[in-house]
Amino acid sequence: MAQVFTLANAKGVCGKSTVALNLAVCFTRAGYRTLAIDLHQQANLSAALGIDLNELRLTSLPAADRLRG
Ligand SMILES: Nc1ncnc2c1ncn2[C@@H]1O[C@H](COP(=O)(O)OP(=O)(O)OP(=O)(O)O)[C@@H](O)[C@H]1O
Ligand SMILES: [Mg+2]
């Protein structure tokens, strides 16, 4: 059965993306199939996972759009 984890906090810059990244990595290393969904404009989670924002073909991220020019 799938489990969904949502990290939310009204305060910014409090570690949400960092916790999400580490949870995703830990679950993956533990053998779980893991999907991390990054809806933040900054796309920090995507970038931290090694995704080249310039290579994104389908995105709702203004940050990625800006990088693509
Ligand atoms: N446990 C920690 N100890 C020290 N620094 C941390 C820790 N967790 C996160 N940071 C640092 O705090 C900063 C903010 O972390 P992060 O980007 O994960 O926050 P965020 O809540 O996702 O921010 P935003 O609201 O901009 O999306 C980063 O520079 C990160 O490296
Ligand atoms: Mg964040």
Low-confidence stretches: none
Hetero groups in this structure are:
adenosine-5'-triphosphate, magnesium ion
Shape label: globular
Counting DSSP H or I runs of 4 or more residues, the number of helices is: 3
Q: How far apart, in Å, are the first and last alpha carbons? A: 41 Å
Q: Mind summarizing the main beta sheet?
A: none
The gyration radius over C-alpha positions equals: 13 Å
Count of discrete structural domains: 1
Helical/strand content category: mainly alpha
Annotation, overall tally of beta strands: 0
Query: How confident overall, as mean pLDDT?
Result: 85
Q: Secondary-structure element order, as H and E?
A: HHH
Share of residues in strands: under 5%
Q: Helical amount among residues, as a percent range? A: 25-40%
Give the secondary structure arrangement, pairings included.
Elements: H1 16-29, H2 44-48, H3 62-68
Magnesium ion (MG) binds at residues 16-17, 40, 44.
Descriptive notes:
The chain is mainly α and 69 residues long. It is 38% helix and 0% strand. It contains 3 helices and no strands. Adenosine-5'-triphosphate is lined by residues 12-18, 40, 44.
Quick tags:
69 residues; mainly alpha; binds adenosine-5'-triphosphate; binds magnesium ion
In short, what is this structure?
The protein is mainly α.
